[in-house]
Amino acid sequence: MLLFCNIIKATEKDSIAVYLFMLESCPISQQVTPAVNQIYREFKGRGVSFQLIFPNADYTTPETLHSFLKKYQLEIPAVIDSSKSITNKWGATVTPEVVVVKKSTGAILYRGRIDNSYVSLGKKRSVVNEHYLKDALWQIVANKTIAIPQTEPVGCFIMKP
Q1: Nearest-CA neighbor of 40 among 142, 131, 146, 134?
Q2: With 70 as the cut, is the pLDDT of residue 151 above it?
Q3: What pLDDT is attached to residue 59?
Q4: What would the pLDDT profile of 94-110 be if each residue is shown by its tens digit?
């Protein structure tokens, strides 16, 4: 069962879907929200649709999700993936994790981190100097080959059903 919150329909011209797997209680998910907001604002009118996916339904309720969206001023459509159908389809294992998909073919164009703000769990970088998602989206929009199509995400584990 999916619980939809803050739904905005994608237009026909949207050819790329960005699925951002998040958990409101995950410190790394919380920390990347400014970058996520900035990327969303930069690409939402460029044929790219975004959706926040919250796969840990044991922790996420409509109330906690609305609170998270409001606290971090997220304008991105969000869904609680209580059956983990979206999570399993795209193979997400941690939060935050991103999967960028070409809608017409279902091909995964990029998978992994938003940026390199964390070296490992609990080990944050003082300077973020790699912006994997943003770089991949710019390369996609420019119809170029994605230089780094996959990175290893760092975050809170998604609970198994």
Answers
A1: 134
A2: yes
A3: 84
A4: 999 999 999 989 999 99
- Please list, in sequence order, all residues whose beta carbon lies within 8 angstroms of the beta carbon of residue 7, skipping any fewer than 6 positions away: 77, 79
Are 16 and 100 contacting, i.e. CB atoms less than 8 angstroms apart?
Answer: yes
The Cα 8–Cα 135 span in angstroms is 25
Residue ranges of domains in the chain, CATH in brackets: 2-157 (3.40.30.10)
Instruction: Find where tokens 């949207």 sit.
Output: 14
Q: What is the pLDDT of residues 113-139, one digit of tens each?
A: 999 998 777 778 788 889 999 999 999
Measured CA to CA, the distance from residue 106 to residue 90 in angstroms comes to 10
The answer to whether 135 and 148 are in contact (CB under 8 A) is yes
- CA 131/CA 109 separation, integer angstroms: 15
Q: How many CB atoms lie within 10 A of CB 102?
A: 13
Q: Which residues pair with 18 in a beta bridge?
A: 50, 100
Instruction: Of 80, 45, 52, give the one whose Cα is nearest residue 64.
Output: 80
